[in-house]
Amino acid sequence: MSKKPSKRFILLGGIPVFDYMLRVDLAEVVRATEGRAVMVGPRILLPAGTVFEFRADHDERPLWLNPLANRPLQDVHGKPFFSLEFGGKHAQQFEHTLCADPDTVLEELKAAFPDRIRSADDLAVVRVPESVPVHLGGNNKNILEELHALYGSPELADQTRGIALEHRFFFDTNDPRYPMVRDLYERMGVSTGTPEELHVDGLLPRISYVLTLVEDDGAARDRIILTARSNEEVIPRERLNQTYFDIEYRLRRDPAFVETHLVINSMTNPEEVRLVARLLQTAFASGVRTYLCPTLTWLRCVDRMIEDKFYAADKERFYEYRKDFLYSAVLPFVQYLVLNREELAEVDNLVHKKGIDATASHIAHRMNRGRFEESYEGGKVVVTGGSQGARYTERLPRERAVRFWRKAELPEGIEIRFADRRIVCGDDYVTNLVSTLGAGDVFTGVFIGLTALGWDGGHALRAATLGAQHFIQHRAKPAIADMVAMDEAHIRLGTETELQDVISHHVASSGDPTRYGTITDTVVTIQTRQLQHPFREILALETGLAAKARRGRGAARARGRKRITGGG
Predict the structure, then answer these.
(1) Tens digits of per-residue pLDDT, 287-316?
(2) How far apart are CA 127 and CA 22, in angstroms?
(3) Rounded alpha-carbon distances, angstroms, from residue 223 to 48, 51, 53, 219, 352
(4) CA dist., res. 425 & res. 458, Å (int)
(5) Are the C-beta atoms of residues 374 and 332 closer than 8 Å to each other?
(6) Alpha helices of 383-499 — where are they, by DSSP H?
(7) pLDDT at position 568
(8) How far is Cα 318 from Cα 307, in angstroms, rounded to an integer?
């Protein structure tokens, strides 16, 4: 009989992606296009007929990558061009083949532009000089790798024994690339269900082409990602339903129920989002902690589901807008929301009017309330901002708000209703940046991993920031020792930044008239800037608290056994 795990993570969405890593000099792009390539802000304009020729490291045949499968044409002085955005992710949406042998791509372009393209000589063929490696990516795969590295840290050994990791998705196990997925997951000890539960015949693997343009001085522009079309419609609806019903059953009726952490990430199948909406309610009722990472891909998938109709029982009508669905069917059943600034704006465009902090507070108030109208605790919203640092927003219930009020030695006798708290962890100055690709997933993996161990939100935020910085410099998943080293390197070089802790107390006094109007809400805000403790000290504090908690639980179990056996 297998030993009961101490904790378990169940990850949904964010399935493995095969990333073809194309790296080419900008000078080669200029040569191939005969100087017609134009840089416009964060974009590069290329003439129609521009293709990228490369050879994958597992295949000697030349392949052509045609961005017109993903990008629309635009007229520039009477000539057709298309744009690629640095840092952008462009999904396949047109009938052109994204990547194929040269003859296939050439025939499609000749048919599309019969007056301009008659032979390969009329194309701008950008040649990638080196064999293109294929990396295994994917949001949840990256998070799992980080959890594996983090929980392998000797400093956390006493807290991480017996933690089970599970990632549920579908894959055609007959695809020749499947062993790459299988071997990695087996090496990390991650369960993907039985082979029968995993396999769907004819399901295309996720493929992306990551294009990096290199300047003359060797500096690399931010990556451009072109994603191939998927065919998730081949997944039988019965199989999808049964997978989610099985997860629900385990959350409700698992005889070996353990502390469970549910992570929802990027999805492209609207049918799966329907089942997630139901699963969130079961998870909330079962005391499962849920982390939602609403990528732009996931949000677009929500839009497609709403177009196909989803009924709002409490409103007695079908949902019409994404925001309506998120605030009614998703956020009330989620404890943690982890996203970047662009994703925040897509979740609620209020950010354009009131800013990041007010929007994050508004969302936090609407989270973690289930079906109740009033929420006393709310959820936690983590907004990453790259070089602008990360922000952790939560709603403090009255008891915690009063504690901070007294700590600040503010006047007694004032009734506090609740407080909004915001911790801003500045992104230290990074002096050696290699690539930001995947850094957001590393940040998320560290934050979720340490939060699940009971770390303070501000401490987990600091660790996640240091871990992401280590990753973009070394392209290796960080363990605790790497975060300590990164922190002490910042201290040594003077490149660290301060932390801001902002607590806004909402007091009960309202309704009083003034010269200008009637008071509807009185807020007293305390803002402090803090030189952060060395991370080594934070680690000692958190591991010490965990050890104390374990001793307390052990003593409680001993007292329980003594009562059962009738000991004196």
Answers:
(1) 999 999 999 999 999 999 999 999 887 778
(2) 10
(3) 20, 17, 17, 12, 26
(4) 8
(5) no
(6) 398-407, 439-452, 457-474, 480-493
(7) 47
(8) 10
Residues in a beta bridge with 44:
39, 84
- The whole-angstrom separation of Cα 538 and Cα 487 is 11
pTM as predicted: 0.91
Long-range contacts at 407-411 (CB < 8 A, ≥ 24 apart): 408/526, 410/524, 410/526
Distance CA 150, CA 227 (A): 29
Q: Could you count the other beta carbons within 10 Å of the beta carbon of residue 429?
A: 13
H or E stretch covering 562: helix 535-565
Tokens of 522: 């009185």
Residue pLDDT, tens place only, 213-246: 998 888 888 789 999 999 999 999 999 999 999 9
Which strand (E) or helix (H) includes residue 209?
strand 206-214
Q: How crowded is residue 439: how many other Cβ atoms within 10 Å of its Cβ? A: 21
- Structural contact between residues 223 and 475, judged by C-beta atoms closer than 8 angstroms: no
CA 251, CA 262: separation in Å to the nearest integer?
10
Q: How close are the terminal C-alpha atoms of the chain, in Å?
A: 34
Distance in angstroms (rounded) separating the CA atoms of residues 78 and 112: 16
* Torsion angles phi and psi, residue 23, rounded to 5: -130, 120
Confidence at residue 164, expressed as pLDDT on a 0 to 100 scale: 95
- Say which DSSP state 412 is in: T
Report the alpha-carbon distance of residue 355 to residue 519 in Å, rounded: 23
Nearest to 271 by CA among 227, 313, 234: 234
Residues in the chain: 568
Q: Could you tell me how far CA 281 lies from the centroid of its own chain?
A: 21
Q: Specify the DSSP class assigned to residue 13.
A: S
Is residue 67 within 8 Å of 50, Cβ to Cβ? yes
Pair 363, 351: CB distance under 8 Å: no
Sign of CA dihedral 255, 260, 265, 270: positive
Check if the beta carbon of residue 140 is closer than 8 Å to that of residue 11: yes
- What region, left, alpha or beta, does residue 465 occupy, with left being phi > 0 and alpha being psi -120 to 50 degrees? alpha
**pLDDT tens, 99-115?**
999 999 999 999 999 99
Rounded Cα–Cα distance for residues 147 and 287 (Å): 22
Q: How would you classify the pairing of strands 289-292 and 311-312?
A: unpaired
Question: How far apart are alpha carbons 118 and 369 in whole angstroms?
Answer: 62
Residue 142 is encoded by which pair of tokens?
A: 């990256």
- pLDDT tens digits, 60-119: 899 999 999 999 999 998 899 999 999 888 999 999 999 999 999 999 999 999 999 999
Any idea which residue has 């996203």 for tokens? Answer: 339
| CA 544/CA 538 separation, integer angstroms | 10
Burial (CB < 10 A; 0-12, 13-18, 19+), residue 118, is exposed
Beta-carbon contacts of 242 under 8 Å, excluding residues fewer than 6 positions away, are: none
The one-letter code for the residue type at 40 is V
Q: Which residue has the tokens 């609403």?
A: 294
CA 145/CA 415 separation, integer angstroms:
47
Q: What HEC string does 110-142 produce?
A: HHHCCCCCCCHHHCEEEECCCCECEEEECHHHH
